């Protein structure tokens, strides 16, 4: 556990009390004075806002103290640049981390308000697509918990991830207007506003010393205005900051048209500038290639870097010490333009010579890669970049030139090698490869699981690995136990707490002490009781959302993640069809609920078709009396953080069945195993490390390895050749093809069957027999309740490696070179005397 220190007198405030009477008073005051409601007339949402405003006052106090501490201690700061933060609801997480959840619940109860009822009304802050955005949120929470001076930077999208409705079996997207009721957790900072320029041209001035200085002139300017979201560390009083930028039209810009008397044009143009932060692109693992996306990326990067440099200078540090006092992590290539922007600011605004600016930039940045998939790798047409960011294009040319000169010197004559390394891809109509810019401009590049990092070094970055082998490191992802265990699974948390001391909440390594209880009968029985209650909670939610009734005394088999071909929801769906046919044939099959959840990118037709087919198959299965309640198939709509906290604790079997070599890491696999679900999975991403941690006997591994997949692809075996590898596979695919499960979507089913038989790019049919065997193995173990519970408890106890706190410590030690600050003591009253 991290040490605490006595408070420095300068950090003292006169904190608001956090006892029940004090909170009660604050909540009532906020209801009247901030929300503007008479308590007699207040709605549940009014109470939600009142309690949020009361807690907001307390969280910001702690933020002020933390900021003063960092300023006094001369710390090195970490800046996390991410286009996405999948935060979820903030009230309960903030209360829990601040250590005042129970007392606030008490205060509300005294006021006649049910905490659970109002907490449910909070919108999920869904400013992210999936794993990448959720990882960013976990990293911020962990930095605050462990006392790292960490700041998140991103975009305050007006509209977050779309709301998924299922209409006539299909996904329909509805806008996520998450700010429509206001947001008590944000602090607008109009004084923190930076200009961001687009378009225009570059004017060069030749200096007497031979250097050329550049001015980027004209074009359009947009203002980036800061909104701060304090992020509380777990029971440690440290509160870090997430700063999100919103686009605002510049005043000058408005005035130009107002003066010309064109009021409508001025307002319309104002709206156009503000579209930059309007909406999150709902694509996961696919590059979008739209001009607006490039503008979003540059917009938040430029504002963040201007802010970072401003803070550095305000603290009176010399500009050339920037990389000693700050570390900047690029979350994927989305913020990679930061490398060129940092150079621009140092060269043009701070007049630092090129070589020195380049040394600072490289020492400052590091880059996390989250995918090997070619379609996810961002490249921008040179022509677009020259038009939108002309100065940056010039800088990128020079970075590239100097880099190629360096490698030419080290590897003379290897022209093909230089071409492959170049930032400019000359083969596909001249494009800027953002991953290359990120690698060249960073001192460390990391993958997010051991297999992923090793594949990165062998494939995508093999050439760079030859140039700078020391640059590539692995940092396996993790998840925060505060949200994904303590909040999501109070029953299991209580069970663990009744057996071992509570230190594990800060130091998941201590969870190992729980391991001996896996063989204790009473603990296993208690575990089953917890799981059962969690299933009842999920069954109620499923009924509310879908109208489907599910039993809570059967296996819950879940596949919850974005819908994508490589994640192979179709593999699970084929298994549902197999079970369906076997029950119809009179076989005795283990009763189960199969639950799918996840969104498809709106432009990704195949993924949307997969959702429709799942829903149509589910409809037939769920209405067939022959199933006799032995098989239910549910597509749970609008999967988001808050629903994940209900689904995950109820799961028995965790489907992690991507085609080996395609899932960089996965983090759902970690959350589910931590909650005592057994994984059925391929040797992909972090599944391999999960297997090593939990033991091969406590996980169901199947299917081709990444190497075998490559070899299989090379052999070019037609997918249909696998139909006889399993006794039922042919009839299952034929049932799909012939529209047995279709409900108006016959053509769609035939197309999915054709796709499997003729294309099957992710080897669903090739892996099916092995998958079906692994499912049967899982079923056999499940029938032995004691054996299953033991394996489940061993999964829980052996998940310490997958704590986000370990992940953050590895970044801190191996990449950022920062140390945690002593954390402030947990009791708010401790420094008031
Ligand atoms: O697909 C990956 C997951 O495997 C991974 O766990 C997660 C966090 O590292 O990132 C996901 N990801 C990758 N999201 N977007 C991308 C490509 O930009």
Task: Describe the fold and architecture.
The protein is of the alpha/beta class and 833 residues long. It folds into 2 domains: 76-89 and 124-476 and 813-817, Glycogen Phosphorylase B (Rossmann fold); 504-802, Glycogen Phosphorylase B (Rossmann fold). The chain is 47% helix and 15% strand. Strands 7-10-11-4-1-12-13-17-18 form a 9-stranded mixed β-sheet. A 6-stranded parallel β-sheet has the order 21-20-19-22-23-24, sandwiched between helices. The protein has a 3-stranded antiparallel β-sheet with strand order 14-16-15. Strand 23, helix 26 (687-694) and strand 24 (700-701) form a beta-alpha-beta unit. Bound molecules: 1-beta-D-glucopyranosyl-4-(hydroxymethyl)-1H-1,2,3-triazole (RUG).
CATH architecture of the largest domain: 3-Layer(aba) Sandwich
Main sheet: strands, sense, barrel: 9 strands, mixed
Specify the overall morphology. Answer: globular
**CATH fold naming of the largest domain:** Rossmann fold
Short description:
With 833 residues, this protein is an alpha/beta fold. The protein folds into 2 domains: 76-89 and 124-476 and 813-817, Rossmann fold (3-Layer(aba) Sandwich); 504-802, Rossmann fold (3-Layer(aba) Sandwich).
Topology, please?
Elements: H1 20-35, H2 44-73, E1 77-81, E2 85-88, H3 91-98, H4 101-110, H5 115-119, E3 125-127, H6 131-146, E4 150-155, E5 163-167, E6 170-174, E7 187-198, E8 201-206, E9 212-217, E10 220-232, E11 239-249, H7 251-259, H8 263-274, H9 291-314, H10 322-325, E12 326-331, H11 338-349, H12 354-364, E13 365-368, E14 379-381, H13 382-388, H14 390-410, H15 415-421, E15 424-425, E16 431-433, H16 434-440, E17 444-447, H17 450-458, H18 462-467, E18 472-474, H19 481-487, H20 490-499, H21 521-546, E19 555-560, H22 569-584, E20 592-597, H23 605-623, E21 631-636, H24 641-647, E22 653-656, H25 668-674, E23 678-681, H26 687-694, E24 700-701, H27 706-715, H28 729-737, H29 746-759, H30 764-783, H31 785-797, H32 804-816
Parallel strand pairs: 1-4, 1-12, 4-11, 12-13, 13-17, 17-18, 19-20, 19-22, 20-21, 22-23, 23-24
Antiparallel strand pairs: 2-3, 5-6, 7-10, 8-9, 10-11, 14-16, 15-16
Helix pairs in contact: 1-2, 1-4, 6-32, 7-8, 9-11, 11-12, 11-14, 13-14, 21-31, 22-23, 22-30, 28-29
The protein binds 1-beta-D-glucopyranosyl-4-(hydroxymethyl)-1H-1,2,3-triazole.
1-beta-D-glucopyranosyl-4-(hydroxymethyl)-1H-1,2,3-triazole (RUG) binds next to helix 6.
């Amino acid at each position: 556990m991290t040490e605490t220190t006595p408070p420095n007198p300068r950090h003292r405030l006169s904190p608001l009390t956090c006892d029940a009477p004090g909170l009660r008073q604050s909540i009532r005051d906020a209801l009247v004075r901030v929300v503007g409601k008479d308590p007699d007339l207040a709605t549940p949402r009014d109470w939600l806002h009142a309690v949020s405003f009361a807690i907001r006052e307390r969280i910001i106090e702690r933020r002020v103290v933390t900021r003063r501490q960092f300023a006094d201690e001369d710390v090195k700061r970490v800046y996390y640049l991410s286009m996405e933060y999948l935060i979820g609801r903030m009230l309960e997480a903030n209360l829990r981390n601040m250590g005042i959840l129970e007392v606030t619940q008490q205060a509300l109860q005294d006021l006649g308000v049910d905490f659970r009822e109002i907490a449910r009304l909070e919108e999920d802050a869904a400013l992210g697509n999936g794993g990448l955005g959720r990882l960013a949120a976990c990293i911020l929470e962990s930095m605050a918990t462990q006392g790292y001076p960490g700041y998140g930077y991103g975009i305050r999208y007006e509209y977050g991830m779309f709301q998924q409705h299922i209409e006539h079996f299909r996904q329909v997207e509805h806008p996520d207007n998450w700010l429509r009721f206001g947001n008590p957790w944000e602090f607008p900072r109009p004084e923190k506003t930076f200009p961001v320029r687009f378009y225009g041209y570059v004017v060069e001035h030749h200096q007497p010393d031979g250097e050329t200085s550049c001015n980027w002139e004209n074009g359009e300017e947009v203002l980036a205005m800061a909104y701060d979201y304090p992020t509380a560390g777990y029971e440690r009083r440290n509160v870090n900051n997430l700063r999100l930028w919103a686009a605002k039209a510049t005043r000058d810009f408005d005035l130009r048209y107002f003066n010309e008397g064109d009021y409508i044009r001025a307002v319309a143009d104002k709206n156009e500038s503000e579209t930059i932060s309007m909406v999150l692109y709902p694509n996961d693992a696919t590059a979008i290639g739209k001009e607006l996306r490039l503008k979003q990326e540059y917009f938040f990067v430029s504002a963040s870097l201007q802010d970072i440099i401003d803070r550095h200078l305000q603290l009176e540090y010399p500009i050339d010490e920037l990389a000693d006092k700050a570390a900047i992590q690029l979350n994927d290539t989305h913020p990679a333009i930061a490398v060129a922007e940092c150079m621009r600011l140092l060269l043009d605004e701070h007049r630092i010579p090129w070589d020195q600016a380049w040394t600072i930039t490289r020492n400052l940045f590091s880059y996390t890669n989250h995918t090997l998939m070619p379609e996810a790798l961002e490249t921008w047409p040179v022509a677009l970049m020259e038009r939108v960011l002309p100065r940056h294009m010039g800088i990128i040319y020079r970075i590239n030139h100097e880099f190629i000169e360096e490698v030419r010197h080290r590897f003379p004559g290897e022209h093909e090698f230089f071409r492959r390394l170049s930032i400019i891809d000359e083969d596909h109509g001249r494009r800027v490869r953002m991953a290359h810019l990120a690698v060249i401009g960073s001192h460390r590049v990391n993958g997010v699981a051991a297999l992923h990092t090793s594949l990165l070094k062998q494939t995508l970055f093999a050439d760079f690995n030859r140039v700078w082998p020391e640059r590539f490191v692995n940092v396996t992802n993790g998840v925060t136990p505060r949200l994904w265990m303590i909040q999501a699974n109070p029953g299991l948390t209580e069970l663990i707490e009744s057996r071992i001391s509570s230190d594990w909440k800060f130091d998941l390594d201590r969870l190992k002490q729980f391991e001996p209880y896996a063989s204790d009968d009473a603990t296993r029985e208690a575990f089953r009781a917890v799981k059962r209650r969690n299933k009842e909670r999920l069954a109620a939610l499923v009924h509310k959302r879908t109208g489907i009734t599910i039993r809570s005394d059967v296996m819950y088999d879940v596949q919850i993640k974005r819908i994508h071909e490589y994640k192979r929801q179709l593999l699970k769906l084929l298994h549902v069809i197999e079970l369906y046919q076997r029950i119809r044939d009179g076989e005795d099959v283990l009763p189960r609920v199969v639950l799918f959840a996840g969104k498809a990118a709106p432009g990704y037709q195949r993924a949307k078709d997969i959702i429709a087919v799942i829903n149509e198959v589910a409809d037939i299965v769920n209405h067939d009396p022959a199933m006799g309640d032995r098989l239910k198939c549910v597509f749970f709509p609008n999967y988001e953080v808050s629903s994940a906290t209900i689904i995950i604790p109820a799961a028995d079997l965790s489907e992690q069945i991507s085609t080996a070599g395609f899932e960089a890491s996965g983090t759902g696999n970690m959350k589910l195993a931590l909650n005592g679900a057994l994984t059925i999975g391929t040797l992909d991403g972090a599944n391999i490390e999960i297997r090593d941690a939990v033991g091969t006997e406590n996980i169901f591994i199947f299917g081709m390895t990444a190497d075998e997949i490559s070899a299989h692809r090379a052999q070019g075996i037609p997918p249909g050749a696998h139909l006889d590898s399993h006794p039922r596979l042919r009839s299952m695919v034929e049932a799909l093809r012939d529209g047995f499960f279709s409900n108006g979507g016959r053509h769609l089913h035939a197309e999915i069957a054709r796709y499997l038989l003729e294309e099957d790019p992710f080897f669903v049919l090739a892996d099916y027999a092995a998958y079906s065997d692994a499912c049967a193995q899982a079923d056999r173990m499940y029938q032995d309740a004691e054996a299953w519970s033991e394996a489940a408890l061993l999964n829980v106890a052996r998940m310490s490696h997958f704590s986000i706190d370990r992940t953050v410590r590895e970044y801190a030690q191996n990449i950022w070179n920062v140390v945690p600050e002593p954390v402030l003591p947990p009791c708010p009253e401790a420094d008031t005397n």
